[in-house]
Amino acid sequence: MPAATSAAAPEREGTKAAARGSAEGRYAAFSATRRFTSLDGLRCLSILPVIWHHSTPRQLDGLLGKGPLGVHLFFAISGFLITTLLLRERERHDAISLRGFYARRSLRIFPLYYLVLGLYALRGWLFMAPSPLREHFFRSLPFYATYTGNWCVDYAVSHPVVFGFSWSLATEEQFYLLWPPVLALSKSWRLPALFMAVLFGLDFLAERGSFVGLLGTEGLALNVLTSISAPICLGSLLAIALAEPRSFRWLRGLLGSSLSAPAALGALALLIYVDGPLLAIHLAMTALVGAVCIRPDHGLAFGLDARVPRFIGEVSYGIYLWHVSLISAVRLLWPGSSPLFVFVLAALGSIAVATLSYRLFERRFLRFSERFRRQPAL
Questions:
Q1: What is this structure's pTM?
Q2: Which stretches within the chain are classed as H helix?
């Protein structure tokens, strides 16, 4: 017996060392991943419900009315990617170049955004008859131009809000403005994690009316708090956790099975179907983002990594900016059309226009933005 015990001890130590080596190898493989290809497929799953939502004359009840949640998935992806990008830059260069980050983001986002906004303004000036809708648009134009529409534009009006979909882009820009300096000034994960957790808590409380006694039921301060995006916060916290070897191992055990991604997508679909709590939906979205990034051979790779979903995801920014105009064009050309007809034609048209926009316009700025890159793109 003593001999057997003595022989088993080295064997157990060898097993532990192999397990550690395997865990370290998985973490190294994740850290070396230059592009999480399945996230383009998730962007495709995000943009199509948004187009459907805007193709209906009003928000529908039940599952068909959940299109706005596509934007929430976009937010979770964005929080994860931007945070991962910045953390890896800090790891490799011992610093984050805020100048480089803002140059790249500006060249990616601003040219197309201001082109589309300019076309909206030109159309309003030339073709929109004097009306409350036109007056509201031009009154809101300075806020659209400064990415403060989600704070300052009055959405509680009886007519459609022209360019109102840009609220989500304003939310993204505010995240880009606020978050990178926090990461740049910190040398560990603790301060950024605490900062993002506090933001998440403020949004959670504000959305549930906890600040009404202090701030009232409306106003700029309340708008700022409620415009904090919980999915962006959760995506950022996911990135922080995956960047640390110890928490990566824990999350790898939770989300690293080949069945984790299908399970996360199934849980998300079920929560949406039963109208589950929004926090649970956001957590499922975040789990889905993590599951498709932790291992490239996840159970949804056959669909998310297919050529068409990935391509739609790659040009999804342009689709988002152009799709409302394409919906308006379809309704103008075929008045009285069903929402399904409008959706199909607008989706196909938006993909086509976004493709041309990307190849003929956006790509010029993207090539120039590479001059400011210190590491491979994700």
A1: 0.91
A2: 2-32, 38-55, 69-93, 98-127, 132-145, 149-152, 167-185, 190-207, 212-215, 220-226, 230-243, 245-255, 260-273, 278-294, 301-304, 307-314, 316-333, 339-357, 363-369
